Amino acid sequence: MIRILKQIFHTGIVTEKLPLSTDPELEKIGVKLEAAIRRKFQRSLTIRQVDAGSCNGCELEIHAINNPIYNCERFGIHFTASPRFADLLLVTGPVTHNMEVALKRTYQATPSPKLVIAVGDCGCNGGIFGESYASLGGIDKVIPVDAVIPGCPPAPAVLLQGILNAIGGQDPALAKKKKPVKS
Amino acid sequence: MSRLQNIVMAALGADATVDDTLQPFSVISLSVPRTRFAEAAKALKKEYALLAAEWATDETLLGRGFGIYACYRKEAEYLIVKTLVPVDDPTFPSLTKKYVPAYRFERQMNSLMGVTPVGHPDTRPWIKHEDWPEDAWPLRKTFDASKRLTRGSGEYRWIRAEGEGVYEIPVGPVHAGIIEPGHFRFQAMGEDVLNLEAKLGYVHKGIEKRFESLSWNEASRLAGRVSGDSTVAHCLAYSQAVEALTGSTPPDRALWLRALFLERERIANHLGDLGAICNDVAFAILFYQFMTLKEEMLRTNDKLFGHRFMMDRIVPGGTVVDIDADGIRTILLELDRLLKEFERLVVIYDENSSVEDRVRDTGILSSEKARDLGMVGFVARASGLNLDCRNHHPFPPYDRIFVSIPVLVAGDVHARAWIRVEEIRDSARLIGEILKSLPDGGIAAPVHAPPADKAGFAAVEGWRGEILYWVHSGPKGEINRCMVRDPSSLNWLGLEQCIHGNIVPDFPVCNKSFNQSYSGNDL
Fold first, then answer.
1. What structural domains does chain A harbor?
2. Residues near B112 by Cβ (< 8 Å), separated by ≥ 6?
3. Residue of A nearest to B294 (CA)
4. N or C: which end of chain A has fewer CB within 10 A?
5. Who among B177, B178, B292 is closest to A69 (CB)?
6. Do A102 and B174 touch (CB under 8 A)?
7. Bridge partners of A96?
């Protein structure tokens, strides 16, 4: 036990300020968006991540925003196991033929109002996998998408910025009604 | 003459001939008649060779039928045995009853190429889901890959368990965590798992078919995205296969740089896995500590090589980034710091009895099973098999540096974790040696134009285990077929077999200790 306590004190706090940039403009946006989570989501933005066919590169970076250095929980962002508790779906792609039905079901299981962010170049447009018998292309081919975070894979700071931008740009309570998805 | 070749030649006599399609320095390839395909397997099995891969090709553009290939491995040798089957009778003798790994390979060949393994005990499709049209065989040249599939109906025939108190737990394809999709079906009684069956294929992106529509250079990007966490190893294996096919040799410095990338990828992923194993037994402090160390490595990768995972840094012919004296200093300083931190964490892991209680004797895969199932990588090494291509089939520069291969016999979650601990230590040492002996010179050499109808083969030890690539050029020197064998294609079978007798709540940590790739398996 003493070793564990020593390690904790020895490590200290490694969490970094966001955005990881020296640009004062961006820093201002960071503060503003934190306020947005507070205002619109009662300090708690709950995300359900769905891998609809990615190579798992994007998942590594989504994992990374949970590590102590990026520590997304400080903004009130946390990941949930069930779409029924989610405010936002973070979807990586391309959507495969074999995941199409599961993705639609996950979308339908998420209560409205909801946001969908397509992550990674493949989530945006299919990337290197393109469109084929097995890959349907970007996420928007299957469910409505509110925002995209391109990159292969997008770095953790870019992901956080993208999430913050997406929730700052649109008030989900006032979001226009989207077409229902048929399964 | 290789020993494996001798074995087949002795058993089949004049029926086995050397197939010169493969470049001579790549790997030995034998051609046998279809009727004696299984006989060759039997002879090799008797001499303790293992089946490493089995795949089919469509060679109609070259005026032949379908090719059926089996790749065997024994110690330092690989041997490919090939047979041709006509288009109007696409059947071949199944090897499943001799080699368990053939079980899924052959289901996959049947599903995607439409070649039928005669005598295979399980006719259910694999990767191809039951709602696909039955005659959709994407790897055939006649298949139009640009069209969407129509979706029919159908239900997967799961293995059932019946009896009083027996129930089923379906899990997936969308899982609770931030992980890839797949379906696990448990039959349980109380908390005890009676059986586990995995159904994969959810992230099938048509990668092998996609290869055939790309140029050799573009395809290197695709290889780097077969499994994102092994991007370096896959790019390296692809590049080596192309170099074997074209007879190109990258400059010495590039070979050493590739090894540097490969070892860095190994350390970063092992750190992440150790953290995740601790997380799954609710030991949060080590999860966060290991993840912090991993993050620091990824940042150094980004700073020195321009990408956190070093995607697309390896290409056929060499590498696209170099390292200068400053970079070498940065890495050495980082490793020194990282190792000190790491050793402190390992002591915490090792001394904690609540962690030990969860990881010891959990998810045991016996040596015997591991061998029968043809396990590779750290899963094999945790179950007593001394297997590592860096040693048994060394590609440069591993023929010039000593790799220490840790082997444990317990086969439990702890053994799989501890192999990673030992490998992190050894990879750190290897990086030091690589940087010390990094030769001068260029980092890329031109790749010769691929000749028609030739093949190249490569085996690379990624962090997860042995990765095989086999590339074959068509009549115009284009990609006719690119076979990818990720370690996951073999090791997923091991997860199913290690779970018997365990309780349902221990499944996540067993799964994490394997940490196989869904994308690399589904392709």
1. 43-171 (3.40.50.12280)
2. B127, B128, B137, B138, B139, B208
3. A64
4. N
5. B292
6. yes
7. A135
**How distant is the Cα of B35 from the closest Cα of chain A, in angstroms?**
34
The b/e string for B227-237 (b: 16+ C-beta within 10 A; e otherwise) is: bbbbbbbbbbb
List all residues of chain B from 262 to 281 with a beta carbon under 8 Å from chain A.
Answer: 272
Q: Which residues of B touch A77 (CB under 8 A)?
A: none
Residue B176 sits at the chain A interface (C-beta within 8 Å): yes
Indicate which CATH number applies to the domain containing B109. Answer: 3.30.460.80
In a domain, B262, yes or no: yes
Shortest CB distance from B519 goes to which of A56, A61, A127?
A56
Would you give the DSSP letter of residue B332?
H
Assigned domain for B341 exists: yes
Q: Could you read off the pLDDT of B387-437 as tens digits, one per residue?
A: 998 988 888 889 889 999 999 999 999 999 999 999 999 999 999 999 999
Indicate whether B321 and B452 sit together in one domain: yes
Q: Which ipTM was obtained for this model?
A: 0.91
**Distance between B32 CA and the closest CA of chain A, angstroms:** 34
Q: Which of residues 213-242 of B touch A (CB under 8 A)?
A: 221-222, 225-229, 231
Q: Look up the domain containing B11 and give its range.
A: 3-118
DSSP assignment of B18-45 equals E-TTB-TTT-EEEE--GGGHHHHHHHHH
Of B118, B149, B164, the position where a domain reaches its end is B118
- Number of domains chain B is built from: 2
Residue B181 lies in a domain: no
Task: Round to whole Å and give the CA distance between B450 and B244.
Answer: 10
Distance from CA of A99 to the nearest CA of B (A): 6
The number of angstroms, rounded, from the C-alpha of A16 to the middle of its chain's C-alpha atoms is 19
In a domain, B506, yes or no: no
Q: CA–CA separation, B290 vs B338, rounded Å?
A: 10
CATH code of the domain covering residue B332: 1.10.645.10
| Cβ of residue A50 closer than 8 Å to a chain B Cβ | yes
